[in-house]
Amino acid sequence: MELKYKNVASVYDLVYESRIEDVEFYLQEALRAQPKRVVELGCGTGRVTLPLAKLLPNSQVFGIDMDADEIAVLAGSIQNQGLANVDVKCENITSFAEKDIDLVIAPFRVFQHVLNLEEFRACLRTVASCLKPGASFHFDLFNPSIPLLAKKGLVNSQVFEDSEGYKIERTVNVHDQDYFAQTQLIEEDYVITAPDGSTHDLHWHYRTRYYFLGEVVPIIEASGFRIDRVNSDFTGTAYGQGAYPGDLVFKVIREG
Questions:
Q1: Mean pLDDT, the chain, integer
Q2: Per-residue pLDDT reduced to its tens digit, 157-204
Q3: Contact indicator for 124, 220 with CB cutoff of 8 Å
């Protein structure tokens, strides 16, 4: 029997189905911009891509992600839902070569996977090169929590169950912090229990980098952008006025 959940990408939509506040935010920004051509960086399995394509049926939506398994899940969803206005590619952000883009979005802390400032600069230069002058770029990052960074490890466990009776136990272990490089190792481990009681494991281990506002701002401004606003959540709360630590939610404008 073929496994229903054969890789982490196949579990993703179930794990994050309740996370909707950022999806609504990016959809509202797209409605305001009314782009003819829009790019989503780090599109994953289509948590934002799919509703975006439905919201803007006359727009061309480009999705980019480096995870081939997630792109495969998204491609299947696009076909199943009959969406003709979506083009997805498995590639690095800096490889994206489309021009005359009206809007770029990078939801769900995509740049946390960019592990050094030089790569971050390269990503922003690529975005600037594809955007039309005056067009906007929206993205979000963690706002680093100093108390959490001071801890040597952080473990979080959750249990999910789908409509067919599969149970997914997910454990996330954050450790091996490098305080000079501002990186940490994240180990996501899953135990999948089928309705018949059989089990199998999935694992996804990767490093992420955390960014402070003070180091991000000058890079943004040196990459051809003007910062329009920085919020601490997806409801418009200004940075520094919401609950700590919150997020860093950016809207920046391509100059020129």
A1: 97
A2: 999 999 999 999 999 999 999 999 999 999 999 999 999 999 999 999
A3: yes
Decide if 181 is inside a domain.
yes
Provide the pLDDT for residue 152: 84
Residues spanned by the domain of 157: 146-209
Specify the CATH number for the domain of residue 154: 2.20.130.10
Residue 127 pLDDT: 98
Predicted local confidence at residue 1, as pLDDT:
62
Per-residue CA distances from 163 to 73, 155, 167 (Å): 19, 27, 10
Q: Are residues 201 and 217 in the same domain?
A: no
d(CA 91, CA 108): 18
What percent of the chain has a predicted confidence (pLDDT) above 90? 96
**What is the Cα–Cα distance from 88 to 70, expressed in whole angstroms?**
11
Euclidean distance between CA atoms 251 and 234, whole angstroms: 11
